[in-house]
Write a structure and sequence with these properties.
single chain, alpha+beta, Uridine Diphospho-n-acetylenolpyruvylglucosamine Reductase, domain 3, Alpha-Beta Plaits, 17 helices, binds flavin-adenine dinucleotide, binds (2R)-2-hydroxypentanedioic acid, binds zinc ion, FAD binding, EC 1.1.2.4, oxidoreductase, FAD-oxidored/transferase_4
Length: about 500
């Protein structure tokens, strides 16, 4: 194909026929948009958004999108696809950043957006049961009315699905406070590749009866089944939320500030996010608004506190800021005075991914690194890009900027290279350099976004052979035909010789 010249479609998989489409229309009904049919009808424009990812980097050629409305429909679809050897790719809000949510070739897209009901909420325990296709922000809005919060928040909340969040084991902005989904998910319902419905939708915290199989689906990126329902423990929503934004002169000082924040703000600390000055300058170039602080600084941090006593929390935060200012750990800072300011400060952090795409594209590396060395990667990659003469202001330079930001509290850096176009010369500087850099420090080449098609060939930099071997056996057990997720016959863990 034009899109993936080095990949070959596995011809053991069937080509879609009119007969297949007729079956799906019978199961889902042909009215509405439950079936977007590009096989018997011309639906190219309608199929486009399902074929392309959020970054406009990965493109498939699916000719059929199915939007099931119930678990039974998902089951019928998968059973049939398994029998007929039709490859599929599950899709939530299509906000994933590793090309995992779009087809590689002509896989059928199973889009979960019609499964969007909230089923129950227990006001005493805080457990919520909802369909996988519910939009994160919608669920969180529902929970807000009940005085609770979804234990995950991220910049894509307006589009991403909670099923997609589980499938990628998304981390987000408050992991430091609410922990990983592996801890907060109570149960799931999932449809396995052969159509079997696995009902593990418990709403209780404890259940030590054998293997905890739901955990395999969290972070599996849809490779062993489709999550159809989610049961999750939702914490009490804090009545008092405060946000501070400050500037610092070195990464040493960022680390000192983090230590102080943990010790002085302790139980009310709910986010500690890092942004370098370069990322903030690029955001400003796109938005042309006033930056939160007057002067420029090489680093910025955003701190959020969430507690139950506004005055007490505010006083604590102010005392912290005064202390770190006196000790010259931070150079300048501002505390949001109202909800509008709070949102505005957050937007300088949450808005980074979108703004960086402004010039044409972004190379993204989502890595875990021991915290002391976290920022060195950005400096090293910047130096290499400059050396290669790739960074500049004119169209002859593919690279607009090399920036770093991320979840300081989780040792999770986002190295982003904003480009005017995706170009081989840039890729040659980045890979395998970045992966080798990470492996040397025993870090992770994908801290929270998953493997998708972007990182699957590099799993060996972060996992040993025995672990990868076990993963392959699990894939083989659930999906012997390798029909789920990417690969049309090559599981995402196997296709090491093929690169985009
Ligand atoms: P999709 O993109 O549709 O799918 C992602 C993967 O999951 C694909 O492999 C797909 O096949 C699979 N999948 C989707 N739904 C299901 C299902 N029901 N069952 C089985 N498999 C399924 N990630 C973070 O971890 N932290 C962040 O802070 C963060 N911020 C982001 C900010 C922005 C602006 C954007 C665009 C993305 C961000 N992400 C972040 C990436 C993150 O992975 C997604 O936003 C989100 O978790 C994916 O949900 P989705 O519904 O869009 O899934
Ligand atoms: C974030 O933290 C997301 O904003 C996206 O994980 C990071 O785009 C990225 O690299
Ligand atoms: Zn992130």
């Amino acid at each position: 194909t034009e899109t993936y010249p080095s990949l070959k479609r596995d011809e053991r998989f069937a080509q879609l026929t009119e007969e297949h489409v007729a079956y799906f229309k019978e199961v889902l009904g042909s009215s509405g948009s439950a079936v977007i049919d590009g096989v018997t009808a011309d639906a190219e424009a309608d199929l486009e958004p399902f074929n392309e990812d959020w970054m406009h980097k990965y493109k498939g050629q699916c000719r059929l999108v199915l939007k099931p409305g119930s678990t039974e429909e998902v089951s019928k679809i998968l059973r049939y696809c398994n029998e007929k050897k039709l490859a599929v790719v599950p899709q939530g809000g299509n906000t994933g950043l590793v090309g995992g949510s779009v087809p590689v070739f002509d896989e059928i897209v199973i889009n979960m957006s019609r499964m969007n009901k909230i089923h129950s909420f227990d006001e005493v325990s805080g457990s919520l049961v909802a369909d996988a296709g519910c939009i994160l922000e919608v669920v969180d809005g529902f929970l807000a009315q009940k005085g609770h919060i979804f234990p995950l928040d991220l910049g894509a909340k307006g589009s991403c699905h909670i099923g997609g969040n589980l499938a990628t084991n998304a981390g987000g902005l408050r992991l430091i406070r609410y922990g990983s989904l592996h801890g907060s998910v109570l149960g799931i319902e999932a449809v396995l590749p052969d159509g079997t419905i696995m009902n593990d939708l418990g709403t209780l915290r404890k259940n030590n009866t054998g293997y905890d199989l739901k955990q395999l689906h969290i972070g599996a990126e849809g490779t062993i089944g489709i999550i159809t329902k989610v049961s999750i423990q939702c914490p009490q929503r804090s009545s008092a939320v405060n946000v501070a934004f400050f500037g610092l002169e070195s990464f040493e000082k960022v680390q000192l500030a983090f230590r102080e924040a943990k010790s002085q703000l302790s139980e009310i600390l709910s986010a500690f996010e890092l942004m370098d000055g370069k990322s903030q300058n690029l955001v400003q170039r796109v938005r042309s608004g006033k930056k939160p602080l007057e002067d420029d600084h090489p680093f910025y941090c955003l701190i959020e506190t969430s507690g139950s006593n506004g005055e007490h929390d505010y006083a604590k935060l102010e005392a912290f800021l005064e202390d770190v200012m006196t000790k010259e750990i931070i150079s300048d800072g501002v505390v949001a005075q109202d909800e509008t300011q709070l949102k505005s400060l957050w937007s300088w952090r949450e808005g980074i991914p979108e703004c960086l795409g402004h010039w044409g594209g972004t190379y993204k590396y989502d890595v875990s690194i021991p915290i002391r060395e976290m920022y060195d990667l950005v400096d090293d990659v910047s130096a290499k890009m400059e050396e290669a003469g790739l960074v500049g202001e004119t169209d002859a330079h593919p690279v607009v900027g090399v920036v770093g930001y991320g979840h300081m509290g989780d040792s999770n850096l986002h190295l982003n290279v904003a480009v005017r176009r995706y170009e081989e010369a840039v890729e040659k500087v980045l890979e395998p350099y970045v992966f080798e850099w990470i492996a040397k420090r025993s870090g992770s080449i994908s801290a929270e976004h998953g493997l998708g098609i972007a990182k699957k060939n590099f799993i060996g930099y972060s996992r040993d052979d025995a672990t990868i071997g076990l993963m392959k056996q699990i894939k083989q057990l659930y999906d012997p035909w390798h029909m789920h997720g990417h690969g049309l016959g090559h599981s995402r863990l196997e296709r090491s010789e093929n690169r985009k």
